[in-house]
Amino acid sequence: MKNYRFLPIYIMAVALTILMASCNQGVTDSVSVATLTATASDEIQAALISDDIDNELDTYVCDSVLKRYTDSTATHSVTFATSGPTITIDRPDTLYPKIFTLDYGTTGITVPNGNVLKGKITVIVNEKMKLKNSVRTVTWDGLSENGIVVKGSKSSTYKGLDALNLPYWSVSNDLTITRTDGGIITWKSDRLRLRSTINATPQVYSDDVYSITGSSSGVDSRGTTYNLVIRGNYPLVIGANWPFYAYGITSLSIKNGTVVLDYGNGAMDKNATVLVNGELSNYTFQ
């Protein structure tokens, strides 16, 4: 299996020591590992769907796509097919704001990481997307991923380049996720999403690797309220057409309990380590 070593393994050994200490602080035995893991599973599901949508925005709602169809004399919208969704741009002229509609149809489109999107994503763009502080405001119409229904809103603000000359975005979500079994998750998040590598394919965004920091909160499908923080020195890492996190550490808290998830050292697999009350167990992405 392909293995991306995002950071040296020895750092993870230090992280494990820190995590075990943190798990022994303020965690009671009144909340079971199963309960905490179930809440974490709902959080992960919501976050991964959000990441997939961000990937689609980077691929199809961008200046490079718009450039192909810009016409200063245009008076009508333009619609065109891609290898993914059918795209409509309301005004392909040089003025802003613009509205992009990504239509994945009723039978669905398989995105590069293997997930299937159905329905429509509507994006209002207020300015050229490579300008600092340009904003993409996102809503949906009948959107689902693998049968999981997505409602709510998202906004993504381009923040420019960091000290290492890497582009990053501030992403806010206010989502309601309906699982295939009817369970409902509400999810809010404020995160920074940094593109750490383009994998030597500057015109292909789906295989880029992203580093994510920040926090989220919500109510899981069983009605449990929770809060989550991504450890600052251990950001979540996702990309390279892999649908799960390959690296990072998060702390999720509910009343009377905390669970820490360690996503490993960069191996592209479905495994994570769960730490509760100082005890380790394994978690496998579904």
The beta-strand count equals 16
User: Poorly predicted ranges (pLDDT <50, ≥5 residues)?
Assistant: 1-29
User: Mean of residue pLDDT?
Assistant: 87
Structural class by sheet pairing and helices: alpha+beta
Largest beta-sheet details: 16 strands, antiparallel
Number of domains: 1
H/E element order: HHHEEEEEEEEEEEEEEEE
**What is the rounded distance between the termini?**
18 Å
In DSSP terms (H or I, runs of 4 or more residues), the helix count works out at 3
Radius of gyration, taken over Cα atoms and rounded to an integer in Å: 20 Å
Shape estimate: globular
Strand content: over 45%
The share of residues in helices is 10-25%
Explain this structure.
The protein has 286 residues and is an alpha+beta fold. Helices cover 17% and strands 46% of the residues. It has three helices and 16 strands. It has a 16-stranded antiparallel β-sheet that branches. A hairpin with a 2-residue loop joins strand 12 and strand 13. The chain starts with 8 loop residues before the first helix and ends with a strand.
